[in-house]
């Protein structure tokens, strides 16, 4: 599968600017809502203003009489869709099957689509539409002890259990028993979700912004009962996704309107609508119990996590995932639970499970280190497991200790005074903290086509998505090495469902999955190209499918790892927390493009800062909706919040893996919020177990000697 | 475009990247939508449409401006520069060049706004404008050193959800340094 070694300098591992970079800095790169279509009509979604109930009626007549209005689609007149199917990632979330019935399961549920000639006309008409509801009482109160919570399987089983937890806790020299919470968080990619749908020669064409056109095309074919070959979805440039850009109400509504009107229709979400329609990370309530011998060896580890979901679809935030991988104990119990409330369905968001789960676990480890009087890094290294704590499977390499050694050296950890609350810089209390990170290295079946062109260049067609990860460039480098040519002779085309099925950009699996398929096809193509032979005008194309190769890979615990370090300053008078510097060292397989990889890691770490200090979506219990569903009230880290952030990596090699790539999109956020919270403890002596660490929380918690 | 009463539409002449365009626009049309939907200048991005993210930043008479909070009919007579107009032919603007080389972006959607903002930030700083990060704000103190902290403060109206901030700040610093080096050579 790997190419034969040659004298040529490999492209993989060498910094390469983005192949589409010039288009991005000049504004030439066109995103989904920017492709012109003759005769385009504009759809505007109307969202429910009640959290639970039924639509009694809609006053459509005055709206239809407004200038430019072409149609008002709602449950009384919209095309029917099929929801009883299993898609690429499981059963569909019924919240995407819009306008099928009169029930309202959450505030912000789409109740109508107004289509007009211009977006201004559509917007005014949508805002004019009066909808009458029969309201019913709603419950959106997420509490750790909610009586309707039940265990549920997400990634992996609902619960894992071995050993006698209570006995091991009782026998432990030191016990940590603490509850942690993380709030509702929203992806907020900079590009709002947008899709344009049209029928062209009997085929449905959708220009969209998504994380996988195989996925979206498949879902649309199933929903609208179309032959898969009759649906084409394209998504060339994507302005961020982070888990939110799958099948959503806007694509379905656009297809319905294009079908009814028989002309192209674009539906774009507003930023405010994204808070209701784009998915989000569920809040979590977690409890961790750790029991250890005096030397720090774990006897007991329990991790319980609760998240919420909608009343219509079950989504599990698998927050116990890090405990199932990171540390073993004689008694090791984990369980994920969920409660159904009158809210929208949450979804995957950057490092689903691991991001909130690592906050709890890695904070608890810091608390255990404090109680034991052991260095937090030593404590982790003393608990390195031999096999997967929950699975019993061997590890395919586990380079956590290398990350900690290298990180400690670069950060200057050896000089750290472990006592909390003793360092001052003027009005600021200073502290440092650390945490471990891991994220699964997975891959999904993919196909690729590699063509040797008559002019000596190569074209790769693969249905990958570049949502900002640099995938397009990484795949160019991978293909160049696999073909043993310079990268400028390779053109990689992505984001078109007509290229054949491929894995989505999600779960840090994209670049690994796609590279595998490209390697397979390129290797076979090289065998077919005879030295000195000629290539016919139509080129020579080889196709690959990784399904069999993936199935043959031995079952092991495959993960990337990292060590996170943070230094913070806390003002005890205002409660303000400032991160002064962050450093992460990662073991994440083969790094294809150091230039873009650095951005993936530091971007994830910056998400960690944002998660630790800023992000929190708050719902009004009276209405069931959000306070301030916008980027002013929902603050994501801005330039001024982000200090010097450094990312480094260590060599990391999995001998079984022909590709050697592990995926780097998620691991950067894992543990980052815990490192910040642990640093806040070191600065102030106060534990913050509830995110975000807002000024009011710092003030109410007090500070030593303040 | 359907015909409409003149009370809701007006003719307006917009000067964009040095070219004049006369359009009939709905009075509700923002400058952002006029650029994107009428002039096919889609480099200017719509991130929030309510002045909170900075993705739609353009230069109006040389100063940065969020085009989603400006109506097209109010932009007549102003010199509007978008990301499509900052390069000189095939030669990228030094800020564009620095973003490209230092990877000051990921998904690219906030990038045109970051670039327009950065171009203005460098000019504002050179003109001696202080920021909240400036220690000595007396006019006679002159421009403060353009430290990373100064750049971060001045660029904070432009959100980047990918978190490309580290490289963006490096790119702005490099472009600013190139500008002052060029000025010194010229002087």
Which features characterize this protein?
heterodimer; A: 706 residues; alpha+beta; Aldehyde Oxidoreductase, domain 4; Aldehyde Oxidoreductase, domain 3; 3 domains; 7-stranded mixed β-sheet; 6-stranded mixed β-sheet; 17 helices; 25% helix; globular; disordered N terminus; B: 187 residues; Ubiquitin-like (UB roll); DNA polymerase, domain 1; 2 domains; 5-stranded mixed β-sheet; 5 helices
Brief characterization of the structure:
Chain A has 706 residues and is of the alpha+beta class.
Would you give an account of this structure?
The complex is a heterodimer of chains A (706) and B (187). With 706 residues, chain A is of the alpha+beta class. Chain A has three domains: 21-30 and 443-551, Aldehyde oxidase/xanthine dehydrogenase, molybdopterin binding domain (Aldehyde Oxidoreductase, domain 4, 2-Layer Sandwich), CATH 3.30.365.10; 36-349, Aldehyde Oxidoreductase, domain 3 (Alpha-Beta Complex), CATH 3.90.1170; 395-441 and 558-706, Aldehyde oxidase/xanthine dehydrogenase, molybdopterin binding domain (Aldehyde Oxidoreductase, domain 4). Chain A has 17 helices and 25 strands. Chain A has a seven-stranded mixed beta sheet with strand order 3-5-1-13-10-11-12, with helices on both faces. Chain A is globular and about 75 Å long. The mean pLDDT of chain B is 94. The longest helix of chain B has 22 residues, at 165-186. Chain B is of the alpha+beta class and 187 residues long. Chain B folds into two domains: 9-85, Roll (Ubiquitin-like (UB roll)); 94-186, [2Fe-2S]-binding domain (DNA polymerase, domain 1). In chain B, α3 packs across α5. Chain B has five helices and five strands; from the N terminus they run ββαβββαααα. Chain B is globular. Chain B has a five-stranded mixed beta sheet, sandwiched between helices. The chains are: A alpha+beta (706), B alpha+beta (187). Chains A and B meet through α1, α3 and α15 of A and α1, α2, α3, α4 and α5 of B.
